[in-house]
Amino acid sequence: YLADLNEQADDRLACIISQMQDAEGVTEELKACDQLAWVGAMNSIRSRAEEIILSEMIFA
Question: What is the dihedral sign for C-alpha 40, 42, 48, 53?
């Protein structure tokens, strides 16, 4: 059960991160031009996506 839940959470996390990247304009072009800004944006996106997963799938 836990392995299945972990796999579902990983898939959902990847989906949310991708959607947030598109919505916020975090692209490979930004990565090439300003790596520090890209890393900061990706860290922020990942953190928020993990919080969403925790609230939706783990703590619910």
Answer: negative
| 13 contacts 58 by C-beta, under 8 angstroms | no
End-to-end Cα, the chain, rounded Å = 16
**Model pLDDT for residues 4-19, shown as the tens digit of each residue:** 999 999 999 999 999 9
In angstroms, the CA 54 to CA 48 distance is 10
Q: Measured between alpha carbons, how far is 27 from 7 in angstroms, rounded to an integer? A: 26
| 32-58 confidence digits (pLDDT tens) | 999 999 999 999 999 999 999 999 988
